Amino acid sequence: MNSSIDDSSHGSQAFKASMRAQWDSAASGWNGHTTDIHAWLHKATHAMCRMAGVRAGARVLDVAAGSGDQTLTIAQEVGAQGYVLATDLSPAIVALARDNAVRASFTQVETRVADGEDLGVPEATFDAAVCRLGLMFFPDPLRGLREMHRALRPGGGVCTMVFSRPEKNPCLTILMSTALKHAGLPARDPFVAGGLLSLGQPGHIDELFRSAGFHDVATTALDAVFRLPTVDHYLDFVRSSASPILQILGQLDAAEAEAAWSEMRERLMVFTTREGWHGPNELLLTAGRRAKVTP
Ligand SMILES: C[S@@+](CC[C@H](N)C(=O)[O-])C[C@H]1O[C@@H](n2cnc3c(N)ncnc32)[C@H](O)[C@@H]1O
User: Fold this and answer.
1) Whose CA is nearest to atom 10 of ligand 1?
2) 31 lines ligand 1 (CB under 6 A)
3) Which atom of ligand 1 lies closest to the CA of 138?
4) Cα dihedral angle (125, 127, 131, 132), rounded to 10 degrees?
5) Average pLDDT for residues 247-261, to the nearest whole number?
């Protein structure tokens, strides 16, 4: 079991308040990079939808939806007869998700500001639930999974997407270790709850799914190379939207922060190829099902 942030509810509330503030300020940066994020996660997103059982006419719960890139993919898949509820902790990013859905004329999308550990949705009202790159930020991911389980009708499916092991996500480990070093902070245990790579330990997320009550639990690892023209395009994405790194560097003055960015650039250059900058990432897609009620 991963160690938690702080067992007290006070610690968890403070952690979430800081998470909300970080994503409120990174919201427009994340949304502004939707085209790159979409291209990066497009294949994995379709696999996630398939594994959760998203289909025409379905009611789908989208947890930690951000500015809604995957929400729009789901809206397309469920069609006008379906329904998607996109939820997120950050009011600023939810407002962008709502604007994006309106702009795409998807009347089947609703948005709501909600903590994934306490969604406030009625029991057994969704056919499928997804959470793309969000669950690892929860101080208590088991609570988040129990909430999704509660929201699903019997037989409904879930699929979450998180980063896998640190060695399979070298760009993230370079960013994190460089930021911590420049901030004068000690190296962090990547598996402590609430961190970017916290659910990447082999087998851990499957255990959480089973503890939350899910059946037929299975995890698939997927390569998701982030392909951009140059390392500077990646750094531009990180500098405007990677809130965990920005939070660490926020403690430095401008010159100190620039020194950190410059070292990150140098270390990330190693992923430059003749075809552009190709940053390796590995994702875990974990699927499960709420048991059907036995007759
Ligand atoms: C990396 S972004 C992913 C957004 C979106 N799913 C995507 O893939 O584009 C992580 C999101 O998790 C949200 N988040 C973090 N902790 C949360 C919590 N406890 N409950 C709900 N959302 C949370 C953040 O506000 C942020 O929008």
Assistant:
1) 134
2) no
3) 19
4) -150
5) 92
